[in-house]
């Protein structure tokens, strides 16, 4: 644990000079996401530690290799939390990887994604230049938003060295209600409840048993949560069961995938019809995220529709994300070149052509 | 007018060398006239006069040509022509911006987007709306209010400013403390690139694979493309809104109260501060019963369900008291709440009544530094022999110091500008930024090399070139050129 910035800069400068492909790695929890690529590992895991945390500012700055579980624990001591509820993938996920892979949890529709809480970051580009963008303040519109641009770039535009994140107060009370209902009924209910001013922080329907269960999580002040519970009804889940459920959902272990299967993830309009994604087995984010498990031999893999991604399994050497228009593809390639002219940083992780 | 004087300063600051020949100009005008309705191509000086500046009227420049397209096809064709003839293009919404970001280019086309003003689609199921860029911010909220919804970003200019302009500047407002800036409330945009291609960023869903181009584009000040369609997120209106006011006998005490409140886990919908000069100017103007002896006033808005608001109100009142509030007033009804807000909303024009001219700054600082920075600003102001009133978004540390001056007195405008520059560098020194919501535009160019290192500025330029390799879109704004930076550094070192 410590400041490895100079070492990382030197490694990237060397790779730039020798045009050596690098594979940025810290907790190594996201190899199953994105495309499989080769490259020399550049290890960020030891570049860890909290750089500043002042609870009254609701901001934390940490080195990229800092583990999510450490941040969560530290923040809990002062009754604060990471708004985007990132998965910790067995405790090994780091904040840098979380930002790069744009990983936000079940509360996404209500508390936003990584970008909504990200205030600034340190970045080493493909020339090996260490730079700072954004900052630690709540509002900052000076210069282009290079900070948020990194969300989802999977390290292809630079190695993230540190991040500053806006925090939120912890919830006073958390309750999870379950409702036995079909996916269609659940979709209608989720939509209806989303548009009421209720302290809902997660809604997910799983086809685990019978017609399936809708899980609704209420979090906030005591009276707000109790009033909403009285209004919605349902079965109250025991707190420890609820914790296990939401964590499993967040870490992707709710849907057990076999080796011959591909897990598909769809992200689209929450009011899309139930048959928009064939063989949906789970609906999360109040309808805006849907999951399907298929045999890898299934034709869906040849038909990458917009909004669908081959989340885990299947052929990871071909494209796993839906394509973009020709002008946008060319633009993304130019942006990649603007940050990483020799294409040495995590090339090909998102698309084969990036 | 929330601006300085009428005398232009450095009007050619953004005019880069143009290679356009007289023949090209004639051809461009001819083609634009073929393309657009006759009233949409404005060439005369008198008719272009209203477009020579934005809300920061001290920077003025007449464009070569002003065009007012009516369709997306028009916009696409105009950009293609500018690309073909290599003519600079400056996009403009309602012209309410405060950083001269929409100041025209002397050899360029000014693209006025206000006629693309249709609300295309409202989806109550997903609480989203799709609008053209010329739709006014407040018109959108008004169009969805019967559905119990509203659009959260609410800049002070919301009556007039357009959604397209909001996207260009990443506009905030009083309620962005809790509900975020434009970047947190836009789901998808369609834009036209400088070579006339239509591109969609963002999607129907809540995330997209790959780099976040949507976030990059928002706040890019018209340097990367022209937005022609915006899909925004709408929020359900809270069942209860409660406003309260707290008076303090020092800005430091009020600043500490703000930091303590946030630290206790309360995020109000809005949390604003006014200092003594602003309180008095506002009270004299709108007479809503502000305590004129107070050195600082906090206006706090809480929203949510009845239960949530009651719970928070108790904590907030207690916190304000603990930090030395000399008076707390809780609005009894919506009329009183409106009155408390009215003074805050009228603060800028109120300050305009006590001074011939004023200059509005826009730095953001860490919340905990509010007391120190406000005190330091008063010291700086005294050195320049000027007065500064402060009206700002205390909850997120976004300051709006209003520098009072009289442009008719020789040299005062320049003094005001120098003080403004000192205030912005002070914001950077305490860990903040030179602009929280107004943008860099032409105005804050001198402070960009202070906030950013050369490698970072060079990265910005390479990014700009990825979108606009000929630098035709809003040239001279937002990102300083290499030459500019070199001059800046040699001045600092010399």
How would you describe what is shown here?
The complex is a heterodimer of chains A (354) and B (494). Chain A has 354 residues and is of the alpha+beta class. Chain A has ten helices and 17 strands. Chain A has two domains: 5-169, 2-Layer Sandwich (Uridine Diphospho-n-acetylenolpyruvylglucosamine Reductase, domain 3), CATH 3.30.465; 172-312, Biosynthetic Threonine Deaminase, domain 3 (3-Layer(aba) Sandwich), CATH 3.40.1020. In chain A, strand 6 (118-124) and strand 7 form a beta hairpin. The relative contact order of chain A is 0.14. The model of chain A has no long low-confidence stretch (mean pLDDT 94). Helices cover 36% and strands 18% of the residues of chain B. Chain B has 17 helices and 18 strands. In chain B, the strands form four sheets. In chain B, strands 15-12-14-13-17-18-16 form a seven-stranded antiparallel β-sheet, sandwiched between helices. In chain B, strands 5-6-10-8-9 form a five-stranded antiparallel β-sheet. At the A-B interface, strand 7, helix 6, strand 9, helix 8 and helix 10 of A face strand 9, helix 7, helix 8, helix 10 and helix 16 of B.
* N-to-C order of helices and strands of chain A: HEEEEHEHHHEEHEEEHEEHEHEEEEH
User: With helices defined by DSSP (H or I, 4 residues minimum), what is the helix count of chain A?
Assistant: 10
Give the % helix of chain A.
25-40%
Q: What does the main sheet of chain B amount to? A: 7 strands, antiparallel
Integer average pLDDT of chain B: 93
CA-based gyration radius of chain A: 21 Å
Q: Structural class given helices, strands, pairing of chain A?
A: alpha+beta
Total strand count of chain A, please? 17
C-alpha termini separation of chain A: 32 Å
> How far from one another are the termini of chain B?
39 Å
Q: Cα-atom Rg of chain B, whole angstroms?
A: 23 Å
Strand content of chain B: 15-25%
- CATH architecture of the largest domain in chain A, by name, is 2-Layer Sandwich
Q: Low-confidence spans of chain A: pLDDT under 50, at least 5 residues?
A: none
Helix coverage percent of residues of chain B? 25-40%
Q: Please, how many domains of chain A?
A: 2
The amount of beta strand of chain A, in percent, is 25-35%
| Form type of chain B | globular
Low-confidence stretches of chain B: 1-18
Class from secondary-structure proportions of chain B: alpha+beta
């Amino acid at each position: 644990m410590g400041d490895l910035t100079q070492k990382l800069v030197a490694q990237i400068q060397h790779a730039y000079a020798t045009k050596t492909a690098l594979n940025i790695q810290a907790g190594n929890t996201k190899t199953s996401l994105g495309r499989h690529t080769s490259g020399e590992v550049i290890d960020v895991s030891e570049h860890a530690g909290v750089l500043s945390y002042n609870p009254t500012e609701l901001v934390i700055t940490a080195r990229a290799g800092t583990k999510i579980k450490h941040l969560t624990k530290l923040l809990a001591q002062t009754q604060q939390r990471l708004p985007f509820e990132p998965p910790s993938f067995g405790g090994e996920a780091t904040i840098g990887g979380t930002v790069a892979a744009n990983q936000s949890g079940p509360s996404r529709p209500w508390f936003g994604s990584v970008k909504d809480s990200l205030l600034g970051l340190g970045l080493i580009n493909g020339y090996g230049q260490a730079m700072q963008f954004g900052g630690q303040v709540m509002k900052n519109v000076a210069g282009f938003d290079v900070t948020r641009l990194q969300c989802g770039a999977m390290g292809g535009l630079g190695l993230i060295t540190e991040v500053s994140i806006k925090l939120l107060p912890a919830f006073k009370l958390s309750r999870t209600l379950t409702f036995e209902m079909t996916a269609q009924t659940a979709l209608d209910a989720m939509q209806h409840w989303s548009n009421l001013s209720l302290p809902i922080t997660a809604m997910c329907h799983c086809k685990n048993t019978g017609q399936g269960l809708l899980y609704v999580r209420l979090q906030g002040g005591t009276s707000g949560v109790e009033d909403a519970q009285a209004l919605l009804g349902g079965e109250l889940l025991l707190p420890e069961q609820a914790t296990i459920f939401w964590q499993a959902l967040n870490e992707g272990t709710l849907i057990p995938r076999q080796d011959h299967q591909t897990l598909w993830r769809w992200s689209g309009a929450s009011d899309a019809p139930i048959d928009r994604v064939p063989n949906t087995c789970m609906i999360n984010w109040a309808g805006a995220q849907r999951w399907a498990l298929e045999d890898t031999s299934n034709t869906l893999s040849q038909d990458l529709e917009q909004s669908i991604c081959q989340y885990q399994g299947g052929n990871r050497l071909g494209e796993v994300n839906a394509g973009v228009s020709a002008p946008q593809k060319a633009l993304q390639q130019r942006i990649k070149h603007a940050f990483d002219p020799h294409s040495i940083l995590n090339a090909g992780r998102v698309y084969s052509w990036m | 007018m929330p601006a300085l004087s009428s005398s232009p300063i450095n009007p050619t600051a953004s005019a880069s060398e143009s290679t356009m020949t007289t023949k090209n100009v004639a051809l461009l005008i001819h083609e634009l006239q073929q393309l657009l309705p006759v009233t949409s191509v404005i060439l005369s000086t008198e008719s272009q006069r209203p477009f020579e500046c934005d809300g920061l009227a001290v920077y003025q420049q007449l464009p070569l040509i002003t065009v007012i397209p009516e369709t997306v096809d028009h916009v696409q064709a105009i950009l293609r022509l500018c690309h073909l003839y290599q003519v600079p293009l400056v996009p403009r919404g309602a012209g309410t911006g405060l950083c001269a970001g929409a100041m025209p280019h002397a050899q360029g086309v000014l693209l006025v987007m206000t006629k693309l003003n249709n609300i295309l689609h409202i989806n109550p199921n997903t609480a989203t709306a799709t609008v053209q860029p010329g739709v006014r911010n407040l018109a959108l909220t008004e169009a969805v209010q019967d559905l119990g919804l509203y659009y959260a970003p609410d800049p002070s200019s919301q009556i007039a400013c357009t959604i397209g302009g909001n996207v260009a500047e990443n506009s905030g407002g009083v309620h962005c403390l809790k509900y975020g800036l434009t970047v947190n409330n836009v789901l998808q945009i369609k834009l036209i690139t400088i070579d006339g291609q239509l591109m969609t960023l963002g999607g129907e869903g809540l995330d997209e694979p790959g780099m976040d181009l949507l976030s990059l584009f928002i706040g890019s000040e018209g340097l990367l493309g022209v937005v022609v369609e915006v899909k925004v997120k709408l929020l359900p209106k809270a069942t209860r809104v409660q406003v309260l006011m707290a008076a303090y006998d020092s800005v430091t005490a009020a600043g500490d109260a703000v930091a303590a409140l946030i630290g206790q886990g309360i995020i109000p919908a809005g949390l604003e501060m006014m200092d003594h000069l602003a309180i008095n100017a506002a009270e004299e103007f709108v007479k809503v019963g502000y305590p004129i002896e107070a050195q600082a006033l906090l206006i706090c808005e809480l929203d949510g369900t009845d239960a949530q608001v009651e719970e928070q109100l108790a904590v907030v009142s207690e916190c304000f008291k603990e930090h030395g509030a000399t008076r707390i007033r809780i609005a009894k009804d919506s009329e009183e709440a409106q009155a408390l807000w009215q003074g805050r909303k009228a603060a800028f024009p109120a300050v305009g009544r006590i001074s011939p001219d004023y200059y509005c700054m826009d730095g953001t600082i860490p919340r905990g530094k509010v007391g120190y920075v406000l005190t330091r600003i008063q010291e700086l102001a005294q050195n320049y022999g000027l007065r500064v009133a402060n009206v700002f978004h205390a909850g997120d540390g976004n300051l709006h110091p209003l520098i009072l001056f009289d442009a008719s007195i020789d040299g005062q405008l320049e003094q005001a500008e120098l003080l403004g520059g000192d205030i912005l560098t002070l914001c950077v020194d305490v860990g903040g930024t030179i602009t929280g919501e107004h943008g860099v535009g032409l105005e804050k160019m001198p402070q960009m090399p202070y906030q950013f290192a050369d490698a970072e500025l060079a990265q910005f330029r390479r990014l700009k070139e990825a979108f606009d390799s000929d630098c035709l879109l809003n040239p001279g704004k937002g990102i300083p050129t290499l030459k500019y930076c070199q001059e800046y550094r040699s001045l600092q070192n010399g």
